[in-house]
Design goal:
The protein has eight helices and eight strands. The longest helix is centred in the middle third of the chain and has 20 residues. The protein has one domain: Alpha-Beta Barrel (TIM Barrel), CATH 3.20.20. Helix 2 links the parallel strand 2 and strand 3. Helix content is 43%, strand content 16%. By secondary structure, it is of the alpha/beta class.
């Protein structure tokens, strides 16, 4: 397993040189860059600027894990859905040009006025479309377990069953609802064969981190576990160093 960062709250106001410097200071090996943040790795970059981003990561000995987009495919408005799909394709190009390997997308709920299975099918088909596009760029689609209703693993599993392109992967999000129903192990097993990335959070919270990391080791997961932390801190670098020590114990048993 590898440890990286998501520029969620920690890192949202860092420019790219600061992101790279702080990753090096804390022993984090890579980063998923959330769109709309100060790092500036956005669709507006020119070809030369994209090459420069890739070179900066290479020179720093760090990995650009991918783009953390907010693209979603649940809208009942066909025009909105089409726009989200086209935006995802643009992020795939950006990710490829900057040396990344995946674009994070999400379901973000279930419209109240649409049958659940219709929305599930729509999301799954959209995932297949963007994953087929990403295949041409060597970029996978990482679907975050996210959104009211859609973050429930049995529902998420149905989305992934329809979105069955090999390039569609699960971004496990360590949500409280992971423990619902038949429990963490059952829910994890629903998607463990499709894991792409793992978003981890407060590693000293009550979420069963030891159990999760034990299952990841058992599943021989060798991908990125990415710290996505929303709690405020005045010294994120110091806390990241602490979290790295906790992570090392969890990751290596």
């Amino acid at each position: 397993m590898k440890l990286g960062l998501v520029t969620y709250m920690w890192g949202a106001d860092w420019d790219l040189p600061t992101v790279l410097k702080n990753l090096q200071l804390t022993g984090f090996g890579g980063v998923e860059l959330r769109t709309g943040h100060k790092h500036g790795v956005e669709l507006t970059l020119s070809t030369a600027e994209r090459r420069d981003v890739a070179k900066r990561f290479s020179d720093a000995g760090l990995t650009f894990v991918g783009v953390g987009s907010a693209c979603e495919y649940h809208s009942s408005d066909p025009a909105v859905l089409k726009k989200q799909i086209e935006e995802t394709k643009a992020y795939i190009q950006l990710c490829h040009d900057c040396g990344g390997s995946g674009v994070k997308v999400r379901p973000n709920g279930l419209p109240a006025d649409v049958p659940v299975e219709k929305t599930v099918e729509q999301i799954g088909k959209a995932l297949n479309e963007v994953a087929a596009y990403g295949e041409g760029y060597g970029v996978e689609i990482r679907v975050e377990v996210h959104g009211k209703g859609t973050q429930e693993l049995p529902v998420f599993k149905r989305i992934m069953d329809i979105g069955n392109h090999p390039g569609v992967k699960t971004c496990w999000n360590c949500n409280p609802v992971d423990l619902d129903g038949k429990g963490l192990e059952y829910n994890f097993n629903l998607v463990k064969d499709r894991l792409g990335t793992i978003h981890i959070h407060d590693l000293i919270s009550t979420y069963p981190w030891k159990q999760l990391f034990g299952m990841l080791r058992q599943a021989k997961f060798t991908g990125w576990t990415l710290l996505e932390e929303g709690a405020k801190t005045t010294d994120p670098v110091r806390v990241m160093n602490y979290y790295r020590l906790v992570w090392e114990q969890l990751a290596h048993g």
